[in-house]
Structure formats: C-alpha cells, structure tokens
Design brief:
The chain has 277 residues and is of the alpha+beta class. The protein contains 10 helices and 9 strands. α3 runs antiparallel to α5.
Length: 277
C-alpha cells in the first residue's frame, strides 16, 4: 500500500510539474506575442480583414457676384488595375478597351508595370463607370479591377471668363487663374478610412456601418465680383472685334467706378477650360 501510495504521489507531482511547465510556456508565449510581436500581429490581422480607403471631397465652387456657378466639381470614379491578380491580360484589355476609350496596348502596358495598383483611367464618365462595373460583375474581375473616388472639375459656361478662372491638372491642382491663386483654399480634402472587406476586397456591411463616399461640403466657395451677364456681353464684343479687325490679342476690363470692383475681365485669344489641353 505504501509503495502504491508513493507511486501515485510521484505521478501526481509529475503531472503537476508538466502542467506548471506548460502554463509557464503558454504565459511566456502569450507575453512574447503581446509585448514583442503585438504591433506586427495586429497590423497583419488588420490587412487580412480590411483595407484603407481614401474618401475624397470635391473642390470648392467658384461663383459670380450673383451666385451663378462659374466652376463646380462633382464626384466621379477613377479606374485602377491590380496587375498581380490579372490572369489573362489580353482578354481583360480586349473587353475593357472599348468601354473606356483606351487602347488595348495602353491597358496591357499598365498591367505590365506590375505591383498591386496602377491607374487605368482617371475620372470616368458615368456611363463608362456603369459599363465597367457591369463587366466586373459579368467576368468576375473584382479581384483585379477597382474604383476610387475623385473629384472632376466642370466649367458650366465653357470659355466664359476662362482667362480669369484658369484650370486644374489631373491631381486637382490649380494651374492658372483663380484656380491657382486660391488652390490652397478650395482644394478638395482626402480622408483615409479603414473598411472591413471580404476575400474579394468587397466591403462587409459597409452600406450600414460606414460611409465610403464623401457627403456634405467641407470646401470653401470663392465668390468673385464678376457679373456673368456683363462678362458675356464683353466677350461677345471682343469676338466681334477679333472678327472685324483681326488683332493678335485684345483685353477688356469693366469696373464699377464707385467701388473699383471688376465686373468683367476678358482676353482674346481664349480657350475652353473643360478641354484646356
């Protein structure tokens, strides 16, 4: 009996020792993961369960003294490709090219750049966006094609006051006129947001719990002293003078003599800022 009792005690002590060693090892491993590799592991989980999305706000408007819009922005979508997930570059290019008016060779050149992100076409028209989304759905291209929100600038009156307004470049940067002078004031804002996604990078419950697109207006509006009606009359007179006299250039300025406010300012030759290139 004594021998059996001692054997049982040894076995119990052995089991307790093994359990204690295992608990110490688990505790040390837990501490190592939390304290040493905690940030790395957390970032890995974050990247596996979602991705950073950039929310873009529109550029501020430019209006005349009566509140008439001279330059406005609306949110559009730009198309990008993930070359690392493209399985058939020729097939993708052939199907995508006619939808966005980009040559197959240009699309294949974008894919050949490699990596995980390459722009295909910036600021698509609504009908182009709709057609590409249908292609993605039909051909299951969700793992290699995607969209990002960007603001697109429109000048409702085309060439009216073009030399005053100026124009913007591809990255929403003012390159001339009021657009350049007040670029820091009216430039749109980009805000990063983390979105939970599934295996195909599609947002999970996104429409319920988060906002993917910019809503509201955080931008500032620039109000000019110009009067669109006076500006239109002056520019018509300049066009008439150009046709009748054929000068190399003309400039006209109309001011309020009591306040010094500029009511109209125009030059010829001019251009259409919607197609400044």
């Amino acid at each position: 009996m004594d021998k059996n009792r001692r054997k049982i005690k040894r076995n119990i002590r052995g089991i307790v020792f093994v359990v204690l060693v295992m608990m110490v090892l688990i505790f040390l491993r837990y501490g190592w993961i939390q304290l040493v590799e905690g940030k790395t592991m957390a970032e890995r989980v974050r990247l596996q369960t979602g991705e950073e999305r950039v929310l873009q706000s529109p550029r501020g408007a430019i209006i005349d003294r009566n509140g008439r819009e001279l330059a406005v922005s609306s949110m559009t979508q730009s198309l990008f490709v993930d070359p690392s997930n493209v399985k058939d570059a020729d097939g993708l290019a052939a199907k995508l090219a006619p939808l966005i008016q980009v040559s197959e060779e240009d699309i294949k050149a974008d894919i050949r750049q490699g990596g995980g992100f390459v722009w295909v076409k910036r600021r698509l028209e609504p009908e182009e966006t709709k057609a590409v989304k249908q292609l993605i759905k039909t051909e299951n291209y969700g793992d290699c094609l995607g969209f990002r929100d960007e603001a697109k600038r429109y000048y409702p009156n085309d060439a009216l006051a073009a030399n005053v307004l100026g124009f913007i470049g591809t990255d929403d940067k003012g390159l001339d006129g009021i657009e350049q002078a007040y670029d820091g004031l009216i430039k749109g804002e980009s805000t990063e947001s983390f979105v939970m996604t599934d295996g195909r990078a599609r947002p999970i419950l996104d429409s319920i719990f988060s906002k993917r697109r910019y809503e509201g207006d955080r931008c500032k509006t620039v109000e000019l002293t110009l009067d669109s009606t006076v500006q239109f009359i002056v520019e018509k007179e300049l066009d008439k003078a150009m046709a009748e006299n054929g000068p190399k250039a003309i400039t006209a300025i109309v001011m309020n003599p009591k306040t010094g406010e500029v009511l109209a300012m125009a030059s010829r030759p001019t251009y259409n800022p919607n197609r400044f290139a």
